[in-house]
Amino acid sequence: MSNLQNFTKGFFKENAVFVQLLGMCPTLGVTSTAINGLGMGLATTFVLLMSNVVISLVKNFIPDKVRIPAFIVIIASFVTVVDLVMAGYLPDLHEQLGLFIPLIVVNCIVLGRAEAFASKHAVVSSMLDGLGMGLGFSMALLMLGSLREILGSLSLFGFKFVEADGILLFILPPGAFLALGFLIAFINHLRKTA
Amino acid sequence: MEYLIIVFGAIFVNNIVLNQFLGICPFLGVSNKVSTGIGMTGAVTFVMAIATMVTYLIQHYVLIPLGITYLQTISYILIIAALVQMVEIILKKVSRPLYQALGVYLPLITTNCAILGVAILVIQNDFNLIESVIFAISNALGFGLALVIFSGIREHMDLIDIPKGMKGVPMALVIAGLLSMAFMGFAGLV
């Protein structure tokens, strides 16, 4: 597979959220606004990129039997880095995302790419794979966050279009399930007709 | 009374799946049959109670005294992964029937974010040891309640004619949304 394909497959063909249905917890949990979705997406992208690069570099030194615990330690280290950096420089966003930052560790996308891709491929393709998957994930979170923010409070990135109340339901937990359900159904429809 | 508030709050008001969005993967993944839902609930309750207890002790007797709380995420995930393995080995030796009932679900639990989530929530809420264990068990029961109701509904969904694009996960998510709306009726009770 070419490097370009390694990068672009994360957006549509193998999109983590819409096609592989991985990483559902943060997808539903933090997308009450577009900015939260984007922040979470970029934090995950950083972890995915760095862990893919490091795992691809050390893959030949790790014995096969302990590779999963080794991968988890590498991933958890980068999650701690993101956690501390965000707490220092973006305290508001860190407060909003809360519990879901440490939970990047158990996000199936990160461990999935480590096991399925980075442990078998060279550094450059692993890097592109991680970046593509991460940005595809961010795109999905941004889409869902924008949809919920527009419907729920008639605003986008905090700017209000109209001075009126939106459909409050979409900001609340049930709205997350409903919005994601209909978004996946719409994308399934597009994929079938395309 | 305090304990009752923790139990009720965790099961109904802040349901871990429908309100806090933890453990969505097993919620969508193993909810095709009521019987598998019950097996998964048993395994989650068992592991969540032990994992919360152990991580609580590690936090208060190792991480805080040594001033290395920044290692929280790394140490917790390793403890949980090791614990799941250990529970599996011990169950296999000690109780064969219990192992046969829960065995298949145990390896899936390491990546269940509800376990790590509850372990961290306990620390954030400043619970003591007994409160932590009660909180963990009630959250596991809340997970089980949501899972069993959800799989009961999904068993019937196979027979219903729905638009092609909605089949499978999209429809499951819509059902989860309606279920979550029903649980919102408990909001403000505690």
Q: In summary, what is this structure?
A:
By secondary structure, chain A is an all-alpha fold. Helices cover 67% and strands 2% of the residues of chain A. Chain B has one domain (8-186).
Give the N-to-C terminal Cα separation of chain A.
Answer: 23 Å
Work out the helix count of chain A.
Answer: 8
- Share of helix of chain B, binned: over 70%
Q: Could you state the oligomeric state of the chains shown? A: heterodimer
From the N-terminal CA to the C-terminal CA of chain B, the straight-line distance is 12 Å
Biggest sheet features of chain B: none
Describe this structure in words.
- The complex is a heterodimer of chains A (194) and B (190).
- In chain A, a hairpin with a 2-residue loop joins strand 1 (155-156) and strand 2.
- Chain A has a two-stranded antiparallel ribbon.
- In chain A, helix 3 (34-58) runs parallel beside helix 6 (108-118) and helix 4 (67-89) crosses helix 6.
- Chain A is globular, with a radius of gyration of 17 Å.
- In chain A, 67% of the residues lie in helices and 2% in strands.
- Chain A contains eight helices and two strands; from the N terminus they run H-H-H-H-H-H-H-E-E-H.
- By secondary structure, chain A is mainly alpha-helical.
- With 190 residues, chain B is an all-alpha fold.
- Chain B has one domain (8-186).
- Chain B has nine helices and no strands.
- Chain B has helices at 2-13, 24-29, 34-66, 72-94, 96-102, 106-109, 113-124, 129-157, 169-183.
- In chain B, helix 1 (2-13) packs parallel to helix 8 (129-157), helix 3 (34-66) crosses helix 7 (113-124) and helix 4 crosses helix 5 (96-102).
- Chain B is globular and about 60 Å long.
- The A-B interface holds A 21-22, 24-26, 28-29, 68-69, 72-73, 76-77, 79-80, 83-84, 99, 102-103, 105-108, 111, 169, 172-178, 180-182, 184-186, 188-189, 192 and B 18-25, 28, 70-74, 77-78, 81, 110-113, 116-117, 120-121, 124, 163-166, 169-174, 176-178, 180-181, 184.
